[in-house]
Amino acid sequence: MKKLIALLLALVMCLSLVACGTSDDATTGDAATGDATTEDTAAGDDAVAETIKVGMVTDVGGVNDQSFNQTSWEGLQALAAEDPTFEVSYLESKTDADYASNIESFIDEDYDLIICVGYMLANATREAAEANPDQMFAIIDDNSCADLPNVACLMFAQEQSSYLVGVVAGLATESNTVGYVQGQVSDSMNQFGVGFISGVLSVNPEATVLQYNVNSFADAPGGSTAATNMITNGADVIFHAAGGTGNGVIEACAANGVYAIGVDTDQSPLAPEYVLTSAMKRVDNAVQDISKAVKDGTFTAGTHLYDMTNGGVDIAPTQDLLTEEMIAAVEEAKAGILDGSIVVPTTAAEVPEFTLAAAE
Amino acid sequence: MDNFINNLGILIYATLLYTAPLLYAAMGSCFSEVSGVVNIGIEGMMTVGAFTGATVAYFTGNPWLGFVCAGLAGMAFALLHGIATIQFGADQTISGTAINFLAPGVAIVTAKAIFNSSDTVPLDPSSKIPTLFAGVFSSGTPWSNFMKNVFSTYASTYLVFVVLVVVWFVFYKTRFGLRMRACGEHPLACQSLGINVHRTRMICVCLSGFLAGLGGACMTMATSNQFRPTSIVGQGFIAIAAVIFGKFRPQGAMIGCLLFGLCSGLRVVIGSSSLNISVQLLSMIPYVVTVIVLILFVGKSHVPAANGKPFVKTK
């Protein structure tokens, strides 16, 4: 009897560990010990000196969040496939409490570079970086660690890609009302809204932008409700920057036959007839850059800004639903941003029409 | 006035949207608890249901087949819980906790094996649970908007209320319902009257898994169109809370679920209005209201007397 329970519990433990860190090619041999799974099965403890080990710690979104965790990991995988000197692996964080211990695991295993995905890891990264001054770190979407000598802060000009989709939304709306759903209020999340609203108003100064902060990245019904509310109040194009909550936004848009705009990755597959376009953030390019810099010995700490000039942000390649006029306007806006004639605002204070930050 | 009608429509829409998955799971929980088996594995059973529903619907293109398979997957995990706790007298809380760890693990590992990702591939609109009255009401006037929003809900939402009536009937109007409730109050007396306590409890636990699986499928086949590891986050526990709130009666649990859904909708409606209230405070509404109502209006909940106690057959 007791043995049965013990067996059951052991099975549960094994499975939950497997679920925590399975790599795509299923190198789960040592899953029971909770070790990081690696892409390169050949590389063991006696790895050759020139191997560059890059470890990535996800935030609670997990490695398949269809957002920056996933894009980062895909970037690292592509890098390892193209250059075998890189050995890449990841650890998923299930709760906020996992950040420090996951970073610690990579430090113990002598990783060359530890990439922390997301501003939620800022405190854990700062503590680990201060305690291990010889360890190189990179953190995505956070600039608070820029003062440390061993942390590269990879920042994205998400307001630029949001501006481009804002231009599309401003032209696509027939009711002159567009919607914007945000997952959380923070400086980096606000940039999506600030850029989007500026983009809408640049082509359609008469437009009203309905805004709502769901305050969760995993509340799909909340996203649906917010979007339905906006649609009822006249919105016919809705942009979301809200992770899993955005699934509900896109769903409600499809149910009501209005356009949605996706974020981070090309979200067209979620509803091909209704996802107009997506604001993409090329986190994959950024993690590849910083990993190559470690290999070449050119790693520098401080802020690294990825914007349109270096391919850090862009609009999605799927353009099936866009009209000639929209594509032309997007190209024009892109050119303007690149040559500096358009400067997209980055803070809530610059765009009074953005109201979510004020409600805090 | 127009604004009021609009907001009322949204509130009803949101209430139904949040309520459906919770109510399926809550009815499941009722079955299990009333027969005397604590089932905190509802959350895990919802997760496997959510995953199985989205996967089967994706491969077969048939939402209702997916929906039923979601129930069966939940039932399979309930069977595990039943074997451990009823057959072998294992601690019901521990077994339920184990299910809650096991189920998401199984779902994610399987998803990775099939889809090479922990998300399933998004469903086509044709393989999703349909909305019954889509396109019947056009938008325009406040009242037509109201009707459109109220009736834009999914078939699974209408079904949940049908199931509720059936469950109520089974609970209070059938011989099985009486025996099941008796097993939760005084299993020894039941046995002395020739009722097979173990079998009755096993059936109830399996039914609870089936209903929880259906609840999970609502999240991935109706509200959203794919399974993600974050599809089920806490709905199972809220369903259990609704059952306690409803004094272990299906109709009471319904009120609990509707209240939670209403408050979640209220959050969005107030948050989108011109009132300037901190979003953190608004996010607390569903939970705070639940606690307040629980304290003020719900008297002592009658827990089935033998709930949580393993029953050992006497010869």
**For this structure, what is the CATH class of the largest domain in chain A?**
Alpha Beta
Shape descriptor of chain A reads globular
Class inferred from helices and paired strands of chain A: alpha/beta
The CA-CA distance between the termini of chain A, in Å, is 55 Å
Overall residue-averaged pLDDT value of chain B: 90
Radius of gyration of chain A from CA coordinates: 21 Å
List keywords for this structure.
heterodimer; A: alpha/beta; Rossmann fold; 2 domains; seven-stranded mixed sheet; 13 strands; B: 315 residues; mainly alpha; ABC transporter involved in vitamin B12 uptake, BtuC; 12 helices
What does this structure look like?
- The complex is a heterodimer of chains A (360) and B (315).
- Chain A folds into two domains: 49-156, 3-Layer(aba) Sandwich (Rossmann fold); 158-280 and 314-359, Response regulator (Rossmann fold).
- Helix content of chain A is 39%, strand content 19%.
- Chain A has helices spanning 2-20, 68-82, 98-108, 122-131, 158-172, 187-203, 220-232, 245-256, 283-296, 324-339, and strands at 37-38, 52-57, 86-91, 113-117, 136-140, 151-156, 177-182, 208-213, 237-241, 259-264, 275-281, 302-306, 313-315.
- Chain A has a seven-stranded mixed beta sheet with strand order 1-3-2-4-5-6-12, sandwiched between helices. A six-stranded mixed beta sheet of chain A has the order 8-7-9-10-11-13, sandwiched between helices.
- In chain A, strand 9, helix 8 and strand 10 (259-264) form a beta-alpha-beta unit.
- In chain A, helix 3 (98-108) runs parallel beside helix 4 (122-131) and helix 7 packs parallel to helix 8.
- In chain A, 57% of the residues are buried.
- Chain B is an all-alpha fold and 315 residues long.
- Chain B has one domain (2-296): ABC transporter involved in vitamin B12 uptake, BtuC (Orthogonal Bundle).
- In chain B, 72% of the residues lie in helices and 0% in strands.
- Chain B has twelve helices and no strands.
- Chain B is globular.
- The relative contact order of chain B is 0.21.
- The mean pLDDT of chain B is 90.
- Chains A and B meet through helix 1, strand 8, helix 7 and helix 8 of A and helix 1, helix 4, helix 11 and helix 12 of B.
